[in-house]
Design a protein that fits this description.
With 208 residues, the chain is α/β, with parallel strands linked by helices. Helix content is 34%, strand content 15%. Strands 2-1-3-6-4-5 form a six-stranded mixed sheet. The protein starts with a strand and ends with a helix. InterPro entries: Ribosomal_uL4, Ribosomal_uL4-like, Ribosomal_uL4_dom_sf.
C-alpha cells in the first residue's frame, strides 16, 4: 500500500512510502481485538472497591427482640444485612482485574486495528518534526494544518519527544504515544492515526 508523506504544515512533500501488507492489509481478527481491548480496560481498574460485611460493622450484637411471639420475622442483630445500616451481603472486595494475553495475540490485535484504519484511509504519514518549545498553540496549529483539529487524533512518534508531548497534553481529543506504547484501544478510539515517518520502521520491527 502506497501513501503520501505530509510535513507538519499540512503540505504534501511529493514523496510516498509503502506500508507493509503484513501489518496494514491483513484480514482483521475481531476476537483478538476484543481480548486486547478488554485487557487494556481491565488494567486501568484500580480494584480498590470495598464494602463492609456484617462482621465489620460497628454496632451492638444484642438481640433486638425475643425470638417468638411477636408475629414478625426473627431478628438477631442490628448489623444484619436486612437492617438499615447493616452489613452488605457478598459485597465487593479489593481485587486485581488484570489478566495475561499471549504476545502473538496482542500483536495480531494491533495489526488488525492498523488494518482497519488503513482500509478506512484514516492513516496519515508525517515527516519527522519537532517543536522548539512546549506550546499548545503550536500543536493546535499543526492539527489545523492537517485538517484534523476537530477529530480524535493519535500521533505515533519513534521515541519520546518532550516538547511535542507537553504541547499536546492540554488539547482535547489529542493523544501522543511512542511506538512502544502503542495499544489497540487507542488505535481504534482515534478518528485519525498520524504516524511519523521514523515510526514506520520501528512498527515493522515490533510486529514482524
Amino acid at each position: 500500500m502506497e501513501i503520501s508523506v505530509f510535513n507538519n504544515t499540512g503540505k504534501d512533500t511529493g514523496r510516498t512510502v509503502v506500508l507493509s501488507d503484513e501489518i496494514y492489509k491483513i484480514q482483521p481478527n475481531d476476537h483478538a481485538i476484543y481480548l486486547d481491548v478488554k485487557q487494556y480496560l481491565a488494567n486501568q481498574r484500580q480494584g480498590t472497591h470495598k464494602s463492609k460485611e456484617r462482621a465489620e460493622i460497628t454496632g451492638s450484637t444484642k438481640k433486638l427482640k425475643k425470638q417468638k411471639g411477636t408475629g414478625g420475622a426473627r431478628a438477631g442483630s442490628i448489623k444484619s444485612p436486612l437492617m438499615k445500616g447493616g452489613g452488605r451481603v457478598f459485597g465487593p472486595k479489593p481485587r486485581d482485574y488484570s489478566f495475561k494475553l499471549n504476545r502473538k495475540l496482542k500483536s495480531l490485535a494491533r495489526k488488525s486495528a492498523l488494518s482497519y484504519k488503513a482500509s478506512e484511509t484514516a492513516i496519515t504519514i508525517l515527516e519527522d518534526f519537532t517543536l522548539d518549545a512546549p506550546k499548545t498553540k503550536d500543536y493546535l496549529q499543526f492539527l489545523q494544518s492537517l485538517s484534523v483539529a476537530d477529530k480524535k487524533t493519535l500521533l505515533i512518534l519513534p521515541e519520546v519527544n518532550k516538547n511535542v508531548y507537553l504541547s499536546s497534553r492540554n488539547v482535547q481529543r489529542a493523544k501522543v504515544v511512542t511506538v512502544n506504547q502503542l495499544n489497540t484501544y487507542e488505535l481504534l478510539h482515534a478518528d485519525r492515526v498520524i504516524i511519523s515517518e521514523g515510526s514506520l520502521k520501528k512498527i515493522e520491527e515490533l510486529f514482524n
